[in-house]
Write a structure and sequence with these properties.
It is built from 18 helices and 22 strands. The chain is of the alpha/beta class and about 525 residues long.
């Protein structure tokens, strides 16, 4: 992935760094006599893969909560909740991991509070979907003070039935926190164990680094503790969450109190940009759109962060040296984000701060792409999100319109740097799945190629998970290429992605993963 030397036969490792790159004869001559030689017969070596938007800690914790990811119906969900509650009588709250969907259900809806009451009447239940929805039972709503008289908070929605009573569904953070603030934290010991365990799964998928966005102060301390213990094997760039549901003055005071900023840390654990939510999700009907959803009359989505508050955050970041990553799915949200960044850029140039937009998949305009290029704003995209949500969003918007979503080809052609990722646990984390979909745009659930005009080449897809991902992670001088002096992070694959038939890219096996010269995964 080094443009100065796209392919080589061999490289040496000195300590945790790459020493020499070239032919086997050249590298052998540069090494001391007796240097061990390791061969990877039949395998192709690439730089370690990097996910630019992966909730790694949440993915690990999900394994210790109600796992709804395999549910195919409301009945499956209720059974999973009942089973977990029965097996964990000591749990004060019954809560779920975030990586579950309802779009493929025969009846694609959320369970009602009454249905959850029937399987767990004595304890509060709060099921979190993707960090954008909580489905609660009556006990949880009671604890959160949510009643028929509770108004929709700005940037959120409390769903109510025809009788005016809350159904148990709370959309977006300002509404979710009514219940969420009462949920006890997962124990520190469980979170540390979760982070230890999930790294093994990630290394087996070829990952050597992630950007984990939207973390609390306590989450950051979990990462620090594991790093100090020498147990953080996956290079992590952390992004603290701006709590925009707070009073704006409190929010700004909290941001200013940090004292450090983007770039603090080392090559194993580093502070990235501040994470902000501008809108919700396309599959939820809460992404902020320019026009109403075709199947949801008069609904254009939800603006989670007020424009004035967002302006203050951007101004603060531009003046203080913080980077910024903004969750913006719908076209209107993308418009607002880039307009505010452009306004601030007139007074405080932002190019060197590497602001980036997260998701940006529901129809950014040609003008958006030009503005992003001019400001040096990059995009963290998730091909697996396009793949995962295609069945629902093709029904909602039509195949032609949704084919223009996740326009990676357009971003790249417009000169915008794009990093690849998964948004795990919302979508599956294996990077080869994302590379496969970025290249093929094929969705096997509907047996259709969606938006072939936005497909990219294998080389471009790999760049999104290596060289360009390293740039978004403020680490391009450390990793993302096999080049002398860079960190010895690499992955051995069973086949050459450049020679593989495109539809088989996701079937390539990871044979070995190495971080800093140390093997962290090796296939049996």
């Amino acid at each position: 992935m080094d443009p100065e030397r796209p392919r080589a036969e061999a490289f040496s490792v000195i300590g945790d760094r790459i020493g020499h790159v070239g032919t086997l004869a050249e590298v052998s001559a540069a090494c001391a006599p007796g240097t061990p030689v390791e061969r990877t017969p039949g395998a192709v070596v690439l730089p370690g893969l990097i996910d630019t938007h992966n909730h790694m800690l949440s993915t690990g914790i999900q394994k210790r909560l109600v796992d709804l990811s395999a549910c195919n119906s409301i009945e499956d969900m209720l059974a999973a909740v009942a089973d977990f509650a029965q097996r964990h009588p000591d749990k004060a709250w019954i809560t779920s991991g975030t990586g579950w969907q309802i779009d493929h259900f025969p009846d694609p809806r959320y369970p009602t509070r009454q249905e959850l009451d029937a399987v767990c009447p004595d304890r509060p239940v709060a099921l979190n979907r993707g960090g954008h929805v909580i489905v609660a039972n009556s006990r949880a709503l009671e604890i959160g003070g949510v009643t028929r008289d509770t108004p929709d908070p700005e940037g959120g929605r409390v769903v109510k039935g025809a009788d005016g009573e809350p159904t148990g569904v709370l959309f977006e953070l300002p509404a979710m926190v009514l219940v969420e603030h009462h949920i006890p934290d997962v124990s520190r010991e469980d979170r540390l164990a979760a982070l230890r365990d999930v790294q093994k799964l990630y290394h087996a998928a070829g990952l050597t680094g992630v950007i984990d966005p939207g973390l609390t102060n306590d989450d950051l301390s979990i990462y620090q503790e594991l790093h100090m213990a020498g147990e953080l094997s996956l290079r992590t760039v952390t992004m603290p969450l701006a709590q925009t549901a707070d009073d704006p003055d409190v929010l700004m005071a909290n941001l200013k109190a940090w004292g450090v900023r983007t770039g603090f840390g080392n090559d194993r654990l580093k502070l990235g940009g501040i994470k902000v939510f501008m809108d919700g999700g396309g599959s939820l009907g809460t992404a902020l759109m320019r026009e109403p959803y075709p199947d949801m009359r008069c609904n254009c989505g939800i603006q989670v962060t007020h424009t004035a508050t967002f302006h203050r955050i951007v101004e603060f970041c531009a003046q203080s040296g913080w980077s910024l990553g903004v969750h913006a799915v719908g076209g209107k949200a993308i418009d607002i984000v880039l307009q505010v960044m452009a306004e601030v850029n007139e007074r405080h140039p932002i190019r060197d701060l590497r602001f980036h937009i997260i998701h940006a998949y529901l129809w950014p305009s040609a003008e958006n792409i030009k503005t992003a290029k001019r400001l040096g704003v990059s995009v963290a995209t998730q091909p697996t999100m396009q793949y995962n949500f295609a069945p629902l969003l093709v029904r909602r918007f039509g195949a032609d319109a949704f084919g223009k979503a996740t326009p990676i080809r357009s971003w790249l052609d417009g000169g915008v740097k794009v990093g690849g990722g998964s948004d795990s646990p919302v979508n599956d984390y294996p990077p080869l799945l994302g590379i496969w979909h970025a290249v093929t745009r094929y969705v096997d659930k509907i047996d259709e190629t969606i938006g072939a005009q936005e497909a990219v080449s294998v080389d471009e897809a790999l760049r999104m998970y290596t060289r360009d991902a390293a740039w978004i992670a403020f680490s391009e001088k450390e990793r993302g290429m096999i080049r002398p002096g860079l960190l010895a992070d690499w992955v051995a694959l069973s086949e050459d992605p450049y020679a593989c038939e495109p539809l088989r890219l996701r079937d390539i096996r990871v044979e070995r993963t190495v971080v800093g010269g140390e093997t962290v995964y090796e296939a049996a």
